[in-house]
Amino acid sequence: MSLDVPSALLERAERGEVSDDEFVDCVRSSLPYAYEVVSRVVSELHSGTDEYADNLVAPPDEAARGQLLRALASDAIRGGLERHFGVKLAFQNCHRVAAFPLSSVGNDTYSTFISTRAQLLNQSPELRNC
């Protein structure tokens, strides 16, 4: 299971829509490592001068790796995090999460980062089974 959904939140979801804040809070508590990585790269983006910020540190264990994969492979979770932080997230390999300003979507830097060429160039034997 990707998320540990509190019964009260599940009941609200059964009755209708839930807010992004409620959803992101559920993500934060269910996938703390993934949330921390995203939060950190967003903070680095906002505090730096680079066009984007990314995580180059491999997860400490398989559970953490699984959290990143679940968070970024789910359109709903990824979209909720993007709306919450006001960024566009990009993902390569098993741990390279990048945060881009929304205004950079479609520019050369963003397009290069998400390109098939960049994906191929970021492969290595160590990451084969990540």
Task: Compile the SSE list and pairings.
Elements: H1 7-15, H2 20-30, H3 32-47, E1 53-54, H4 62-73, H5 75-85, E2 87-92, E3 96-101, H6 108-113, H7 116-121
Antiparallel strand pairs: 1-3, 2-3
Helix pairs in contact: 2-3, 2-5, 3-4
Keywords:
globular, 130 residues, mainly alpha, 3-stranded antiparallel beta sheet
Residue ranges: pLDDT <50 for 5 or more in a row?
none
Class by alpha and beta content: mainly alpha
Number of strands: 3
Largest sheet: 3 strands, antiparallel
Structural domain count: 1
Strand order of the largest sheet: 1-3-2
Global morphology: globular
Query: How many alpha or pi helices?
Result: 7
- In round numbers, the mean pLDDT is 90
Whole-Å distance between the termini? 19 Å
Helix content: 40-55%
| Beta-strand fraction estimate | 5-15%
Please compute the radius of gyration using only Cα atoms. Answer: 15 Å
- SSE pattern, N- to C-terminal: HHHEHHEEHH
